[in-house]
Design goal:
It is a single chain. The chain is of the alpha/beta class. It is built from nine helices and 13 strands. It has helices at 12-26, 77-90, 101-104, 107-123, 144-153, 192-197, 220-224, 228-239, 268-277, and strands at residues 46-51, 94-99, 128-133, 140-143, 164-165, 168-169, 171-173, 177-180, 189-191, 203-207, 244-248, 251-252, 257-258. The strands form four sheets. It has a seven-stranded parallel beta sheet. A two-stranded parallel ribbon has the order 4-8. A hairpin with a 2-residue loop joins β5 (164-165) and β6 (168-169). α2 crosses α4 (107-123). The longest helix has 17 residues, at 107-123.
Amino acid sequence: MLIYLRPGLIILPVLLLLATVFSACLGSRGFRPKYEFSAAYERRPQFWLEYHPYPPEQRTDSHPRVRAIPQNEGWTDLRMKRELAQFGQAGFAALLLHVKPEIMASEHFAERLQKFHALSSSLAPGMGIALVLSPGVEGLRLSVQNTMQFVERLGFLRLPASLKVQGEPILFFGGHIELIEDYQGTKRQASLPEFLHNVQNRACTVSVAGPPSEKQPEDLAWRRKKGEFFASQLQEAFQSKARIIYIKSWNNYAEDNFMEPNSLDQDLMMQILELAQKALP
């Protein structure tokens, strides 16, 4: 059957079909955001990543509500394998596991950490792993002596993929901890904020989301700017020729800093990181 159309008639079904196809392309892995990066490195920098085995929950006043894709149900073998494969593909040099002291003290965590190290050797070879003691509340006091004795007794610094700084495995302490400096052994610990701010380490911290504004204090989508904020932070790190680029974070939902695939912008942040790395030698 032949259908004759008058000149100038808009064929709505065809336009709708084209719009559907275009939308599907935008949502696919083939889409790349239009960002440009430039870097003048002679030697490639190291990318370090903040990671939470047990991600802090998103604040109730932050919107829209976001979840990981796929949604995580604990620090399971399946999740470890999936995330380690992503870390290995992204070329992270170090993964900093942020845990609360009470979680680190549990037997279950010790077993999970050993499993994580064992899997990393094949899924993310060459990536160093370090623990960061990060309390959920301010004002916590910790004895460095007792903490280091506990960590050494459980063998956490002897695990195969332990990150080494100046040839020694290291334990980091996060912010909001008052340390009682009573440790007399080999220095294998450091304050993470002090380490990152030490000019000799040439580290630059890169956030995924910008700070809240007065106009839109809790609008998460606005603060992420469709990846523009993250991209600009990476470019600033390149311009400063940072030796260590510390990314906050893989999955810190409490601070609205997350780059893992999620229900808000899917894997956009991973795509931006991939584009940025292509500008490096």
